[in-house]
Amino acid sequence: KKRIYMDPYRKNEIINAFQIARAITKHGILTKIGDLNITSGSLIIGDIIHGITESNKLVQKFPIEKFPVYYYRFINAGTFIMFDNTKTPNKWGLAKYFTKERKVVQKFQVESGNYSYLDKDGLEAIKDNEANNLYPEGFLMDEIYQRFKDNKDILHFDIPIAKGNNNLILLHSEWGDGLFKSYIGLDNEGNPICLFTDLGVSKIDMI
């Protein structure tokens, strides 16, 4: 079975970034984008145009609750979802995604320069709302593009989804289009304590 090996420099960068993320509640170092409401335990990460689909659902299950999402810049840029800010990761795993063919991939594609975090229940709520004409022009036009139009200097948004408790966290990729990876920090029991999306030029790969 193949294992994930990290370039030592990049591994230290990620761990240091996590330490900064832990310090947010005490020192306010990072930019908090919002609190992601995870209601099903299934998380979707994908491009805002083509990636808000089941094809970008992560294999890993996550705890159910509201969790803070942060944007940070430390050497490179990245975003964090913090599930437990009292622990430091014991190990890191490369996040894997299901595709339509039920194959597993290890990167997500960004084609619009922006990506999002949302729970699978949020995706279902978006579909239902569009079917019921709550978003006459579609969620993308009514909720996402309209925010960009009204807030030209803002790159990240916490967007509530109508008729439910879910929300979508919209994030800028920094590098524009490309393939990006996320990493899951795990404790000794294998429980996720954070999810880190690397927006830098990563040297962390499968060997």
Structure explained in plain terms:
By secondary structure, the chain is of the alpha+beta class. The protein is built from four helices and 16 strands. It has helices spanning about 10-20, 25, 120-130, 140-150, and strands at about 5, 30-40, 40-45, 55-60, 65-75, 75-80, 90-95, 95-100, 105, 110, 115-120, 155-160, 165-170, 180-185, 190-200, 205. Strands 2, 5, 6, 7, 10, 14 and 15 form a seven-stranded antiparallel beta sheet that branches. Strands 4-3-11-13-12 form a five-stranded antiparallel beta sheet. Strands 1-16 form a two-stranded antiparallel sheet. The longest helix is centred in the N-terminal third of the chain and has 15 residues, at about 10-20. It starts with a strand and ends with a strand. Residues about 1-5 and about 200-205 have low confidence and may be disordered.
Which secondary structure elements does this structure contain, and how are they paired or packed?
Layout: E1 4-5, H1 8-22, H2 24-27, E2 31-38, E3 42-47, E4 57-61, E5 65-74, E6 76-82, E7 91-94, E8 97-98, E9 104-105, E10 108-110, E11 114-119, H3 120-131, H4 139-150, E12 157-160, E13 167-172, E14 178-186, E15 192-198, E16 205-206
Antiparallel strand pairs: 1-16, 2-5, 3-4, 3-11, 5-6, 6-15, 7-14, 8-9, 10-14, 11-13, 12-13, 14-15
